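Practice problem 4.
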């Protein structure tokens, strides 16, 4: 009789447990359905996209000493850069000031770059921007169109005059891979191009400003507008050398320079030093 009693109790317990388990499962299923389950979570995916195209607008010069400055001063004279996705944004003019006629070999340093409404001066520079989005590289070259000249005087050209540029110091307001700068001399006798900056494939995207010879200016004894000897800052990265045997008259001589930017990666040409 005891065995029968025990068997009856065991069967009854099993039935009760089974009934409770079913109720528990039904409750959990209901919680999942109405979202009240503890730790309830579902995941779902959405897509997002943006498409870029090459820029066609111009780019203003950045600050050579603080490229992240949001309000850089405007270089003097202010000049519009070229438009398009690969552009020359700015290039300095090169002024070698007033010099005394001499029979000695001379090397003259350029005046620094000046700015509108500011006493700030910096080394002379050129700035390139690549907004093509292709990372394909480019080349910047420079030539002197003709010898320093003045057609109104007896000695119309400065024979043997030579412009030289030290390799530039690069700054950028972005995070691209930097191009390469080159030392160069210009040959006014045949108008050939000299390489100034070259960017291989993957290099030179974004804006790059090259200060010739670095960021530092040097003190130089020079003649001011009143022909008095004063000490002023000069840019040793851009120089004009003139042989002592060259005849010059008491006039101003001038020339023009042409900058050439091509989409040929790293393909400079001409008289690299």
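Answer key:
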């Amino acid at each position: 009789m005891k065995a029968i009693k025990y068997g009856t109790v065991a069967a009854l317990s099993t039935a009760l447990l089974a009934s409770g388990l079913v109720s528990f499962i039904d409750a959990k299923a209901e919680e999942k359905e109405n979202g009240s389950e503890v730790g309830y979570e579902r995941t779902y995916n959405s897509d997002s996209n943006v498409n870029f195209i090459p820029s066609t607008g111009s780019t203003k010069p950045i600050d050579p000493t603080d490229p992240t400055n949001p309000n850089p001063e405007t270089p003097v004279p202010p000049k519009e850069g070229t438009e398009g996705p690969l552009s020359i944004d700015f290039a300095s003019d090169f002024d070698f000031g007033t010099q005394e006629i001499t029979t000695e070999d001379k090397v003259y340093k350029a005046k620094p770059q000046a700015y509108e409404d500011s006493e700030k001066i910096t080394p002379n520079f050129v700035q390139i921007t690549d907004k093509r989005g292709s990372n394909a590289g480019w080349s910047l070259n420079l030539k002197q169109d003709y010898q320093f000249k003045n057609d109104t005087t007896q000695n119309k050209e400065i024979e043997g005059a030579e412009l030289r540029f030290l390799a530039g110091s690069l700054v950028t307001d972005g995070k691209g891979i930097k191009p390469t700068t080159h030392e160069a001399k210009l040959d006014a006798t045949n108008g050939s191009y000299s390489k100034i900056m070259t960017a291989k494939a993957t290099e030179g995207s974004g804006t790059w400003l090259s200060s010739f010879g670095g960021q530092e200016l040097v003190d130089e004894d020079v003649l001011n507008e009143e022909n008095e000897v004063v000490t002023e800052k000069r840019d040793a990265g851009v120089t004009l050398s003139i042989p002592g045997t060259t005849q010059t008259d008491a006039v101003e001589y001038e020339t023009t320079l042409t900058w050439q930017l091509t989409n040929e990666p790293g393909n400079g040409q001409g008289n690299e030093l």
